[in-house]
Design brief:
Chain B: This is Branched-chain amino acid ABC transporter permease. The complex is a heterodimer of chains A (261) and B (318). Chain A contains 11 helices and 10 strands. Chain A has helices at 42-49, 72-77, 95-102, 104-107, 111-116, 119-138, 154-166, 184-199, 211-217, 235-240, 242-260, and strands spanning 2-13, 16-27, 31-35, 57-62, 65-66, 80-82, 172-176, 203-207, 220-225, 228-233. Chain B is mostly helical and 318 residues long. Chain B is built from 15 helices and 2 strands. Chain B is globular, with a radius of gyration of 19 Å. The chains are: A alpha/beta (261), B mainly alpha (318).
Chain lengths: 261, 318
Amino acid sequence: MSLLVVEGLGIKFGGLHAVKDVGFTLKSGEIVSIIGPNGAGKTTLFNMISGIYLPLAGRVMLNGEDVTGMSPNRLAERGLSRTFQNLQIFQSMTVLENVMAGFHLQARGPVLSDMLGLPGSRRRSREAEAGARLLLERVGLERAAEREAGALSYGALKRLEIARALALRPKVLLLDEPAAGCNAVETEEIDHLIAAVAAEGVSILLVEHDMKMVMRISNHIVVLDYGEKIAEGDPATVSRDKRVIAAYLGAQATEAANADG
Amino acid sequence: MKLSAKQASLLVLAVLIVLSPFFFPSGYYFRVGSLLFVNGLAVVGIVILTGFAGQISLGHAGFVGIGAYACALAPAYLGLHPALSAVLGAVVSGATAYLVGRPILRLKGYYLAVASLGFGILVSMVLANEARWTGGPDGIKTPDLGLRGLLADMGLELTNPQFWYALSGLALLIGAWLALNLRDSPTGRALRALHGSEVAARTVGIDVAQAKLMAFVVSAVYASASGSLLALQNRFITPDVAGYMHSIELVTMAVLGGAGSVLGAIFGAGILTLLPQALTVFQNYEQIMLGLVMMLVMVFMRQGLLPSVLGLMRGRGE
């Protein structure tokens, strides 16, 4: 059964279509990747699915429910969680607290109980802490737990965001360039982590520039160019698609030209 | 057993409150101390709003005014006991904060600053202009709390300044305890998370608008309690207490001492209450020195006085 169905999604910025008529489906435990040259609209698509942008057209169905334009916090309650391309870390909090904040939906309680430090409030915090420590272990950050998040390396922060997103026990996880800025070893670790999470039945929507990684772990690939879907299919099909090759080669040729200039 | 940071903060505060009187050169300092604690209480509210949740208010003296005038008006017109009047003031402040906060907390940064400033000015104007009820700019008397007499009957004789030093010290201690509990609770983490990144806070399920509103209401209740204590200990109150200068003073205290830290902000309240007394040696240049100190602290210790000093000490220790 399809957990996430995206139909005809579109949005305009300044009169121009940033994303136009994009649709695909995501099944339970499946890894679907969105690829395309820079500026193809991948992050914009993510922002519409996760409720940060309100789409101009189309709809998003999560678990059979129309969730188009629903706010991110309500989507979180329905099991959709995400990470960000440009890191969104809770800077002045510790690494552990960052992940504990991810347990908000399970840990939240009456403010009075929290201010009085009632046993219920302390228990909720303890449970969040225990869960957060397990997740930090899972992403290999357990030794950095007490450090201030802002002091971590870029690659470590990427993993911290994944741990925080996993704290919601999501059914659908959107990962926006989880391996960007990571070295080969870190990329492989993230690669294994994503596969393991998907194996637990979490559906993953991935935006990633590392093509080797995308080809290795994706069940299905959606290719965007200039905001429109130009191809989709399994990795083997997509990598042979002429339009995909043209879009990528075109982009690379332009980038090379820019670099020369 | 090792003390947690929270327990250590409370212990430091309690020890300072209890031991300071032994070093007071005169009874006058009980008065200075209780003023410091009353300001400190409002500043702890600012810590919750600004330090935790990252929202600025330049109108919190408005809530100080509501709390203060509740203790003058409710006994006079409703016949309420002064202590219950303070509770009523807190309820009115909380409800007002809820109504005012809903529209203005959608604003960010300096837009929010100006909107909240407007609210503070509004309250002080009402207090100054509705002279029939409030006594206008000349101020109004507040009744005796009656607790000191009660304590005297029970055999605990305190001078008036001593009594208010003890009561506002206790209030500050309770206020700090509540805020420190909040800081490391799920609600406190949600507030600090939205301070760090609103968009990420929303994606982990935090209702950002509701969380901000909650912080605004709680901080308004702190300000109100501070105003009530001030009105009851002075036995007299003027609309100046709700004026924008007082709002700015509260924010300055918090930021100077370290808005992210409860103890730091109280320290800031202490500095800004005591420094003018200490700087009297500079006579005419007192205000200039005060301004200079504030600028230097902000330029060189952006996190505020106490967190920066503690950070330096920790750095040396390692």
